[in-house]
Amino acid sequence: MISLLILHFAWIIVTVIFSSDALISLKYLLAKGWYLLAFIFAPLVLFKEKKNIRLAAILFLTSMLLVTILSLYRHYKLGFSFANINNAVTPFFRNHVNYSAMLVCAVPVLVASWQLNKKYRLIVLIALVVVLAALFLSYARGAWLALVIGVAVYVLIVIRKLFVVFVLSAVLLVASLFWLKTNDRYLEYSHNFRTTIFHKDFKQHWAATYQLKDVSTAERFNRWIAGVRMIGDHWVLGVGPNTFYYNYKPYTIPVFKTWVSKNEEHSTVHNYFLLTAIEQGLPGLLIFLLLIGAMIFYAERLYHRVKDKFYRTTAMACGVILLMIITVNFLSDLIETDKIGSLFFLCFATLVTVDINNKNKNQIST
Questions:
Q1: Which residue of 116, 281, 324, 363 has the fewest CB atoms within a 10 Å radius of its CB?
Q2: Predicted TM-score (pTM) of this structure
Q3: What percent of the chain has pLDDT over 70?
Q4: For the stretch 125-144, what's the b/e string if a residue is b when 16 or more beta carbons lie within 10 angstroms of its beta carbon?
């Protein structure tokens, strides 16, 4: 996995050199380098001892619970309304999407804690109830889906089918994209500009989602289509890391325009995998998918081969968190954020550490 990570970073360097805006991409590269040092190479040193992995989990859960309780209280003062959820989580989180993504990733850590610490199970159970309640009240559809996926992933790891399902899902997704592109079928799913709005009531928001009348869903389609069209012109090297915003508008199609298409907040394509292909080319996406595939393979493999209960449970938690992060990143682009991104790379470092520690101690069964 380390070799794939090095290849991933090396390819980013190449795309920075040929970027449409080298200065912006260079800033991205420096930030990425800091991420790798802080959340991969430092943990590879620190996680050699179990107590440090436990401490990292405790620090994550404690800080997350404190912020969650405060956010719940502030949300309560605002009537637990959908329209005010972003106000309740500010300034700890940019919006309810980032907040819910961290909440859902805390669930596997709490479940692992419950399995490993019989003495503190009541405390862990109370914390889990608080997190699940906050997750429900976050009104984030992607995080809810990630929770369901997380349960499925647990089962798939146990029956040794996670890696196979991941590969089949990737193939199915690519086939679906080709089907939509053929004869411009995607144009059949264009929305009505006048009826596509933001709903402050969550029931209306939910109904608008599957009716394709929710503005956030509709704007995602707008940017996804522009992004796919961009790949056609920049499929090898992409437009350069962190430069999507400065390049995508000429590729949008008028029939998919929404009320928020001006994009005053400078947000990106809202799909990290598509964003990677746009900014780093198809080779960059392929390398990233191989990296994810390796992590999934290792999580499943370690769970079944490691004898130590602590390390087996840790591998399972990393596998579930990884797939949850993948799920939310189909509707967002959070790998580069200072919260979800850190968990993604910490999972990588933890899996590598579990593998190394158990090989050194001859604790892997044959």
A1: 363
A2: 0.88
A3: 88
A4: eebbebbbebbebbbbbbbb
CA distance 6 to 4: 5
Phi, psi of 306 (to 5 degrees): -80, 135
Spell out the residues 6+ positions from residue 31 whose beta carbon is closer than 8 angstroms to its own.
336
Supply angle C-alpha 348, 333, 311, rounded to 5. 20
Tokens of 33: 């380098």
> Looking up tokens 């090297």, which residue turns up?
237
> Is the per-residue pLDDT at 208 higher than 80?
no
